[in-house]
Amino acid sequence: TGGIEVDRFLKTSDHFIYAAGDIAETIQTIAGKKIRFPLASTAAKQGRIAASNALGENREYRGVTGSYVIE
Questions:
Q1: Closest residue by Cα to residue 17 from 63, 55, 54
Q2: CA 3 – CA 18 distance, rounded (Å)
Q3: With 80 as the cut, is the pLDDT of residue 70 above it?
């Protein structure tokens, strides 16, 4: 995907480093595949979860459906 691989808590392979937003891989929930989904709402949600987890919480990011509308 070209993105940074993260687990469901947005941790990278170094468990002291989190990745979120346009650069982080996520799971496309319908197909179950890893994708990059550079969309502001997704980045904001991932950022909030990664920050919470870095501060000691244990919040899971479940992925995206991967749909959006273009006019």
A1: 54
A2: 13
A3: no
